[in-house]
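Minutes, structural biology subgroup

Action item carried over from last meeting: produce the structure token record for Molybdate ABC transporter substrate-binding protein (Luteipulveratus flavus). EB confirmed the sequence was re-checked against the source entry. Recorded below for completeness.
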Amino acid sequence: MSALRSGTAVLTATALATTLAGCGGDEQPARSKVVTVLAAASLTEAFTDLKKQVEDAHPDVEVRVSFAASSTIVQQVNNHADADVVALADEKAGKTLKPDVLGSAAPRLFATNRLMIATPADNPAHVTGLDSLTSSSVDTVLCAPQVPCGRAAKSVLAKGHVTPHVVSYEQDVKATLAKVRLGEADAAIVYVTDVTAAGTSVRGVALKPDQNVTTRLPIYALNDDEGTRAFVDAVTSSTGRKVLTTRGFGAP
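Output recorded by EB:
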């Protein structure tokens, strides 16, 4: 953690404690240790759950999580963006992190993911599987090729020998799914976890097992600070596994 950020965190915590004391009511513990987490968009729901668990278990730790495409996160970290923990949607993204920012940090695989077709809830194009996407009347949206969900979708399409009618490529999996949720596309290839998170707002259409691919998610601890250890331990613990499984992720 940088000296500047540490100083800011202490000042913020002091101001908070003073304000609470002046309000009379029950005082809350000052969160003097800040951990900054940069995580793939597909981890939004799971890491939001884990953030709360870590903060409940460690009253002096504040977890700040920012979600984006893995390619964006890598670019930010390689440009020395402030980060304590980095969690990406596939291993290939991690291999593009520069050694000078990683230092001695080694990836820990903590989950896996699979792909699924998502359609609007009423499935107006009657998509039944990968072959349906070949029709010019089925507007399909994919993740951009440089992000993990785009790479995985490309592999799925190659396995199925399918060339879809693609109307747009989106910056991350959440933006891709949003096109379907808003009725701006008939189908999208996204992660199972994102279909799960969307609930009844979309319909999931399973891919054949021999067409699907599995991505493995790495997490990096960029320092040995207490907050960093607390968050990474939570993600890789049995409790973290339960949270991830509930959100649709598989074991690493």
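Discussion: The longest helix spans residues 3-23.
Next step: EB to file the record with the rest of the batch.
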